[in-house]
Amino acid sequence: MLVALSAAQWVVGKALAPIADGLLEAWGATKNLGLNIEALRMELLLVKATLELAGCKQIQGQAMEELLGKLRHSAHCAEDLLDELDYFRIHDELHGMYDAADQHAKGCVHDFCLNARHTAKAVSQLVGLSTRSSASSPACDPGEVQAARQRVSCCVWPHGRQRSCGNSSLAPNANQEVSGCIPRLGKLLLCSSSPHVCDDHSGQPTLRGASQKETPVLGFHRVYVSERMKCIVEQLQPVRTEVTKILQSCDRMTVPDISVSRPITTGQSTEQKLYGRDHIMHTIIHDMTKGKYCSKDLTVLPVVGPGGIGKTTLVQYIYRNQQVQDHFQVLIWVCVSLSFNLSKLLDEIKTYIPRVEGEKVGRVEELIEQRLKSKRFLLVLDDVWEFSNGDDWKRLLLPFKASQEKGSVILLTTRFPAIANMGKTADYIELEGLKSEEFRKLFLSFVFVDEPFTSDHSFLLETGDKIMENLKGSPLAAKTVGALLRKNLNLRHWRRVLESKEWERQTGVNDIMSALKLSYYYLPFHQRQCFSYSALFPEDYKYSGTELINFWIGLDILQPCGQNQTLEDIGLSNLNDLVTYGFFKEEKTNGRLRYVMHDLLHDLALHMGSHEYISLHRSNVGSVQIKPSIRHLSIIIDDDDTLSQENFKGQLRKLKTILKVKQLHSLMLFGEMDESFASILSDLFREANGLRVLCLVNMPTSVEFMLHNFSALVHLRYLCLGTKKYGREMQLPLAISRFYHLRVLDLGSWYGCCDLPRDLSKLAK
C-alpha cells in the first residue's frame, strides 16, 4: 500500500509541475483555456491533499489499492495533457505566435480570421526573404528564412471535435501534414525542412540544406484539449470523493517500528552446517587468535554483503568456535538492527560483561571500562544499519579502547560499505554469492533436509539447476526456494516455481525477498525510484554513471532541492548513496568506472515496480503478467538461436492485444535485431505517442520506420539512438529539433550520417 500511495503522490506532483510557475496558465488564457487549466489544477491539488491525508491514515486492502491506481492513472492523463500544452506554449514562444488563437468554438472560419494576421505576416516575411535572396542577396541569413517558415508552419487546421480522455498526445490525426477545413491553403503554407548540419566525412559536422522529407506539422486543437481537461476532472472527482469518505473512518497511522519485524539474532546459529565459507572463517579465526590482530590494541573488522548472503551465519560460526571461546575472556553478541540507539546499546552490552570486584557505580561507559580493563574481549555488533552520527560511533568505542589487554576484536556485520568504512580499523571482508559447487550442496540440503538425495530424484535436477542459476549463490534464496520445492517433489511443481519465480511472492520474515525489501524500504522514495527504474536495463549490465544519471533525468525522477544544484549534481548524489547502501557496486572495466547491480537486486527492482514497468526477453515473454497499468517497457533480444528468435517474434506479435501502447512513457530496446524484428516492433508501437524515454540502439532501419509517429513525440525527454556499425547511410531524423522538452540526446552509439538540424539550438532544456 505504501508503494501505491507514494507512486500516486509522485505522479500528481509531476502533473502539477508544468503549472507551477504560472507561465502555462498565462499562455492558456490567450487560448481561452484559462478556466479549464485552473479547474484541472484545483482538482489535482485536492487529489494531492487527499493523498497526503491518506499518508497519515491506516489504510489497507486490495480495493483501496485499486482506487489509488485509478487516481494515479487519471493523474498520468493530466500530466500528459498539461505537458503537451506546455510544448505548444514553448513552440509559440519560439516562433512569435504567443498571442495567436487556435480553433474557435464557433468553427473553422473564425479560426481562419483569428489566425489570418499571423499567417499573412509569416507569408509576407517568407516571400520577402525569398525575393531578396534571389534578387540582391545570395548570402541572406538562412536563419531568418527558417524562422519565417516555422511561423507559417504553425498554422494548422485540425479535424473536428472528438471527445476523449485518452493518452493521445495530439489532436486526432495530428500526424497528418494537413487536415481540416481549408486543406488547399494548409498545403500551400506548409514549408520545407530546415537547413541541416552535415557530415563532410571528415568527422566534423557541417551545414547544408536538407534533402530529407519534410517533418509533418503538429496540430493544436483547442476544443479537443478543453474537452479532454473536462473529462479528466470528471474522472478524478468521484474517485477522490470516495477515497476521502473512506479516509474519514480510518484511524490515524502510528509510526511503525520497522525493526520490530527483524528477527533478533544470537551467537547460536540455526544452520547445521556452514557451506562455502570455510576458508574465510578459518582465516578470520587464525588472525584473531594467532595472527595479525593479536598484537593490536583493538581491531574493528566489518563483514559486508547484501541481505541473505550469509554474514550473520558466518560470524555465528566464528563466535561459537571453541578456539575463539578459549582465546577471549569475554564474548558479547548484540543484534543492533535498524535503530542505532547508543544508550540502549551500551546498556545491553553491559549486561553481557561480568562484574569485577570493587567496581564503582557510575555511568554505563565507566562500568564497561572498569569491567573490561584487564580483559581480552570479542564484541559482535550484528546487522548494523546506521550510526546516528560519527560522534556516536566514537563514543561507543571509547570504553572498549581503555582495555589494557591487546588483541580485542569487534566484529561488525552490515549491508552497507559506508558503515564498514566508517567503523573499520582493518580492511573489511565482503561476502559474495557462494561458488556453484558449494551452493548446489546447500540448495539440495534445504530441498531434501535429512533425506538423502537418491537416483529417484535425478529427473528433477535439470529444472533444479535452472532454478539455482536464478538464485545467484544467495544462501537465504536457497533456503526460501528449497522450502517451496520440498512441498512437492514432482517435475510439474518445480517447473511452475521456475517459470513464475514463485519465491518472489513469499512474504515470511526469513524469506529472501523480505530481506531484500527491507533494504529497499530503507531508501527515501526518490532513491527507490532511481534504483527500481534502472532494472529496465538488462541483467549484468555495466552502467556508466553518466548513462544512469541521464536516464533518471529523462524520467523526471530528479528534483532540484536548491537553486545552485543541477540535475546532474542530484543524480550523482543519488548514485553515490545507492552505492553506499549496496544497491550498486563499483567496478573498473577497461580502466573506466562502471556500476553493476546484483541479479537478485535486479529481480527485486522489477518485482517492486511490476505495476508500472516490465522487462521482456525470450525466457519470460510468454509467461510474465503484463498489467494494464504498465507505462515503462524494455525489450531485450538476447538469443542468437534462429528458432528461439522466431518464437520470441511470435510472442511479441501477441503483445498488440495485451499491452496498452498509448500510455507507454518509456521504450528501451537492447540487443541485435534484424529488419523483421524492426518490422514487428514498428507495428506494435504504432500508437506510442506518450513516450518520455526512448532508447533504440543497434537499429537496422531508420527510427521513422520503427516508430511511424516519431515526429509527434512531444513529451520526449531522453533520446538515445544507435545504429549498427555499417549504418553510415542512415540519417538523423529532422524532428529532433522540435522536441522542446528534450533534455538528453545520446548519440554515443550512432554510426550513421551526422546531419544535425540547424535549429537544434532551440532545444533550450
UniProtKB/TrEMBL annotation:
Q: Which UniProt keywords apply?
A: Leucine-rich repeat, Nucleotide-binding, Plant defense, Repeat
**Single GO term (MF):** ADP binding
Q: Which InterPro entries match?
A: Apaf_helical, Disease_R_plants, LRR_dom_sf, NB-ARC, P-loop_NTPase, Rx_N, WH-like_DNA-bd_sf, WHD_DRP
NB-ARC domain boundaries: 295-449
**Residues of the Disease resistance N-terminal domain:** 12-92
Q: Does the keyword Repeat apply?
A: yes
Q: What are the GO BP annotations of this UniProt entry?
A: defense response; response to other organism
Source species, domain of life: Eukaryota
Q: Can you give the residue ranges of the Disease resistance protein winged helix domain?
A: 536-605
What's this protein's family per the entry?
A: Belongs to the disease resistance NB-LRR family.
- What this protein is called in its record is AAA+ ATPase domain-containing protein
Look up and give the organism this protein is from: Triticum aestivum (Wheat)
